[in-house]
Amino acid sequence: MTNSTDNWKTQIRKGYLELCILMLIKQQHKVYGFDLLEKLSNISLDVKEGTLYPLLNRMSADGLLTAVWETENLKGHPRKFYSLTKYGTRFLAEMNIEFEQMIEIYKQLTKIKNEKGGSPS
Amino acid sequence: MSKMTSDPRLENYLTSLEQALRPFPVSDRAEIITEIKSHILSALERDPQTRLDTVLAALGEPETVANRYLIERGLKPIKPPISPVVKWVVIGFLGTFAMILVFVGVLITRATPLLHVDDLKEKVSLLGGLIEVDGEAGKVFISGSLGDHWYSTKTSIEGSSPITKGQNISIKFINGKIEVSNTNEQKFSWNCSSRGSTSASPKPIADKNGVAFDLSQLSWVKCSLLVPADTKLSIDGSNGKLEFDEPHYHITANMTNGKVSLIPDDNTAYRYTLAAINGKMDSFESSNKSEAYLVAIHLVNGKISKDK
Questions:
Q1: B39: which chain A residues are within 8 Å (Cβ-Cβ)?
Q2: How confident is the model over A3-58, as pLDDT tens digits?
Q3: What's the CATH code of the domain at A44?
Q4: Under 8 Å CB-to-CB from B10, ≥6 apart: which residues?
Q5: Does the reported pTM lie above 0.80?
Q6: How many interchain CB pairs under 8 A, A with B?
Q7: Domain containing A82: what range?
Q8: Structure confidence by residue, pLDDT tens digits, B161-192
Q9: Which secondary structure element, helix H or strand E, spans residue B44, and what is its range?
Q10: Which residues of B touch A (CB under 8 A)?
Q11: Does the model's ipTM exceed the 0.90 cut?
């Protein structure tokens, strides 16, 4: 794996990861870091804890997320639960539209390539 | 849980993380620390088989995590995290350096003082006694792993030769000191030493006129001579010192560069022929008595004195 492919992967993954995280939080309504890590892992999107927490921190600072400290049960320890702000919800909707357009373009590009290749249908 | 929170490894990790998060305001820092701690506790709670070390390793070095936070928030990372390899190389290097320091320290302590000079005993001690030079005995002592060794740097000549009244004793020397005293025995004795070994071991030559002794081959010769009464002592020398202590014999001395000490016996008469060219001379009282010893000293550059 060359450096340039690594670099490209990191860049494209970053925006994609942010989108996925926001979507997951929207689905869960509220979720804490460790739980989010497991859910991302369940859909084969492996994120390192050292990456996720700083990302959540920044998205909170950007006003996309809001967080509250809660203790699930009496003997448990406090956990930081994240949920989308109104601004976050609006922002996610824009992100979804943008990303769907990107997928459309990508699909068209692959289609053209397949037709040119003359694959039997 | 309380047990886990008091684990020093966890505390150390969180302390390091807090240190590395310094650019953030205190409230932000506290929030991050609490969340990371919460994450660690959740991970341990989820799988009790998981070891704390594994959880911390998955998080990464505290400095790396802190820098992620800083970069995400558009702040400048404090410093590039030190990779474990570099860390161990540095530790290894410092360890080696410390060992060398200890070694040098031991060497210095054992070999102290580096140089000790005893003027009175003519002794020089190098490297805390590892090498000792004994000027008086003319020996060098070297202490080593293969045993201690004494090396002699001095040649000693000792002996005597029978001599009778009226005979001659003739001495030659270059560089050194000759002390002459009286003896009641009917023989001329010498006890000489020389610094630096020499292959030439001079021997006196005796004939019907007396004894001739050439010491000029010896460097820095130091002699004590015992001369019987009423003999004729003749010395040729250069660079050094001549000393006659209350002589009861005739003296003819030719000396270049040096000092001649002539200590007269108050109860003995001497007839002097003294010359100090380019030098100084004490005053000696010459006698015309027939039994007076003849003392002829010719000195170029130096002093003829009445005392030592």
A1: 33-34, 49, 53
A2: 888 889 888 888 999 999 999 999 999 999 999 999 999 998 889 999 999 999 99
A3: 1.10.10.10
A4: B4, B37, B40, B52, B56
A5: no
A6: 59
A7: 3-117
A8: 888 888 999 998 888 889 999 998 889 998 88
A9: helix B26-46
A10: 1, 32, 34-36, 38-39, 41-43, 45-46, 58-60, 64-65, 68-69, 71-73
A11: no
